[in-house]
Design brief:
The chain is mainly alpha-helical and about 500 residues long. The chain has 20 helices and 6 strands. About 50% of the residues lie in helices and about 5% in strands. The chain has a 6-stranded mixed β-sheet with strand order 3-2-1-4-6-5, sandwiched between helices.
Length: about 500
């Protein structure tokens, strides 16, 4: 490390930061919300906060400090376990040291979870052009917690381990929201929330120097953090509270399913460093990444949008890809459960993660049954066949629910009459949904909407498109394109 960095991160500088923290803490009654991701930056920020407040007399530690961590439910297991253990230690140390610190994990709403979105709704794996995961898995859960504290206290101060050296964009955003004469900044999107960044001017060397020269007040060994970074060759995936916060870099601790990057170098490095039991996760992630190959999208994606319509890209006969097909969603669920079983068998004792939770399985089943025509009710069957579990209590539907035998019979009848079976299924599902209702005024509108959907085969649609554009007849082009913009631009539900 350079002499300059040693001087800039000296005892005098740290003492000044601790004084600033105490002054800001005592200046008003606004509670603090500290974003903790388990990485080096957020650990440094929290450790500075703890050290500063611990120096105050106990009677002056009157404001609650909420330490929140964002759990996307698809975090890299090694990092997730590290955060869980650390939060437990923070809670125990806070009680023992009479610190006003409360830990809290924020998680996405069930309908927004990664597996419900990907497998249940058919959302394609996230990409740089369509990064639907950040908003649902990170920003919304953290914002919901902050808004609840704002509703309770009027205003809050958010403490984030962000640094201006992370990127030019980050430095610009931090400068833009600076309050003149104050070390606080206005939050970019949340009303009555203010941001304090105690390590804004730290370099990476400053961060590591502080962590290695100062013991963790809650009992962690910061050398374990160094080892985890070394094994992963990764950067921190910060608590994301707005769209200006960098979600994750090219090498990062973060979600093990992340397909925004071409290769998960962090996971690969962990496996090379001895965590071979993570290999099935990397293989599943790589399978998801393959679905983004423009030449192969037609293997996994429906040519219809979720709205049931078919759109073309510009003045061409290239079809905009829609959600994953039901058949591929079934494959994804089966492979995921097989991966979970394999990881449980190979993981060290006590470290096997739950990749998908039971409430997510129930929600996926509901979506498939009510919105995607899964008359065969395949979720319970897939769970039984892969995990051998019969202890899950699946909701028993009423007598008007359709079965796999009904679907086979319907397919046969529709084939004889040259009628799309999906259309008839849709109409029957509409009738089923309104069964027993006294007022059925909306049923006719829903039936009309069903007939407006596109039920023709892809070959027919492309041939018609070619004639409209005056193109020569030829083979059907793939239902794919490098662009994910259509799925992204039409709204959260792919309409």
């Amino acid at each position: 490390m350079s002499k300059k960095n040693n001087n800039s991160n000296g005892a005098g500088r740290i003492a000044a930061i601790l004084d600033d923290i105490r002054d800001i803490y005592l200046s008003d009654a606004r509670p603090w919300v500290v974003g903790y991701s388990g990485g080096k930056d957020s650990t440094t920020a929290l450790q500075l906060i703890w050290t500063a407040i611990a120096a105050l007399p106990s009677e002056r530690r009157t404001k609650t400090i909420y330490v929140i961590s964002s759990d996307t439910l698809v975090e890299t297991p090694v990092v997730s376990r590290y955060i869980d253990v650390t939060l437990d230690r923070i809670s125990s140390a806070a009680a023992a040291q009479n610190m006003p610190v409360v830990t809290h994990k924020v998680v996405p709403e069930l309908e927004d979870s990664f597996w419900v979105s990907l497998i249940g709704k058919g959302y394609p794996a996230p990409s740089r052009r369509f990064r639907w995961c950040t908003e649902r898995l990170k920003i919304q859960p953290a914002d919901a917690f902050i808004k609840s504290r704002v509703a309770e206290f009027g205003e809050v101060v958010m403490v984030l381990g962000v640094r201006s050296q992370e990127s030019a964009t980050r430095a610009q955003v931090m400068s833009l929201h600076q309050i003149e004469g104050s070390q606080l900044r206005r939050h970019s999107s949340l009303m009555n929330a203010f941001v304090y960044a105690p390590i804004a001017d730290f370099s990476t060397d400053d961060v590591w120097t502080y962590l290695l020269q100062n013991e963790s007040p809650w009992g962690n060994d910061n050398r374990d953090l160094v080892a985890m970074y070394r094994n992963a060759s990764a950067g921190e995936c910060p608590l994301v509270v707005d769209t200006s916060t960098p979600s994750c870099g090219n090498s990062r601790f973060g979600c093990w399913v992340c397909t925004v990057v071409q290769r998960d170098k962090a996971m690969e490095s962990m496996i090379d460093s001895g965590e071979e039991w993570l290999t099935p996760l990397l293989e599943y992630r790589d399978m998801l990444s393959q679905t983004q190959d423009p030449e192969r999208k037609h293997e996994f994606r429906d040519f219809r949008r979720k709205s049931g319509q078919v759109n073309f890209i510009g003045e061409t006969d290239r079809v905009m890809p829609g959600p994953y097909t039901m058949e591929f969603c079934r494959t994804l669920l089966r492979r995921l459960l097989e991966t979970q079983k394999e990881v449980a068998r190979e993981a060290p004792a006590g470290e096997a993660p739950i990749l998908i939770h039971e409430n997510e399985l129930h929600e996926i089943r509901r979506l498939w049954r009510t919105e995607r025509g899964d008359w065969a009710d395949t979720v319970p069957r897939i769970v039984r066949e892969t995990l051998g579990r019969d202890d899950i209590e699946w909701v028993t539907e009423d007598s008007v629910a359709f079965t796999a035998d009904d679907g086979e019979l319907l397919a046969s009848v529709c084939a004889d009459n040259e009628v799309p079976p999906e259309l008839v299924m849709k109409l029957l599902d509409i009738e089923r949904a309104s069964h027993g209702l006294k007022r059925r005024h909306a049923v006719h509108t829903r039936i009309e909407d069903a007939f407006r959907l596109e039920w023709r085969d892809l070959e027919v649609l492309v041939a018609e498109r070619r004639r409209t554009l005056g193109l020569e007849d030829g083979s059907v082009l793939a239902v794919v394109d490098d662009l994910e913009l259509p799925f992204d631009m039409v709204g959260e539900d792919g309409r």
